[in-house]
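Late entry, written up from scratch paper. The run itself happened at the end of the previous shift, but nothing got recorded in the book at the time, so transcribing now.
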Amino acid sequence: MTSLLLAAYAVVLVLVAGPRLARAGWVARAPGLGIFAWQMWCTALLSCTVLVGASSMLHWDRSHNVACRAWQVCLDALVGRHGPAAQIAAVCGAGLLVALAVRLTLAGWRLTGAERRQRCRLRQLMRTAGQPLPEFGAVVVPAEQPAAYLLPGGDERDVVLTSAAVNHLTGEELHAIAAHERAHATGRHYRLLRTVRLLDHAFPWAPCFATAARQMHRLVELRADDVAVRSHPPIVLARALVALAEARAQQSAAGRNRAWWGTEDPGAHLAAHGGDAAERLHRLLHRPRPMPATLTRATAGLFTLLPVAPVVFAVVERSPLAP
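Output as recorded:
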């Protein structure tokens, strides 16, 4: 019964909560809160999957105290001591947990390796051909494609501008773009994206994780814009985005829009031109009204309950207090 109810909760998360969150307008007003909401959604869905497998295998007598016996992994059902039906459920639960662990481990290994190789290539480029620009807090590397980005997993010292971007942007615009990339570093946006990208790569047949990855990438760009405009006029950052887009469009029309960084996963880059360009420009030119602090706290509290609810339910349902 526990497994069925947890599975139903997961279905509600996938079919109701996820799509509603993707369409929510308030996330554009509070992208930081939107990022937190998607993190809680992913955690809740993963928790449900783990608990479905675990609840099919772990059995304890309600006459005993759960707090005293919850640590005991009882696999009696696997050998049929609870009957054939329980044995089938336990085998399915064990298979689910093993498959989940294998998929996550393989996806994590591939993503980590790709990110490490990408970071090494770019650091080598910075060492051999990079030119530090202390006034912008960035390093300029030669490239025909105008771009500004943060090294994967880098800190504030790892902001990179291409020579084409320096040629196309004014000094004020370069400062705004560099501030945007530093906001990615201070906000640890690579770490935030890494988990959802891991789920997307581990379960490519689940479109809900692809949606979560797209939404998270969109929101970290909006959040970085919000941080950048604290120290630079929004119109300056908007002009920089337009200039980069125009230069890239011209190169694309000329057939020279090849991805110069040679990455296996272009989505791993947090580049200044990333996200939904039209939405970002609209927000920069028409600044949204911030959400009230009370509503922000209430919304954060509500999404905090998403991953907590299945855990509490699984324990309470099996506890001696359950009817």
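Confidence is low (pLDDT under 50) at residues 60-73, 259-268.
(Scratch paper discarded after transcription.)
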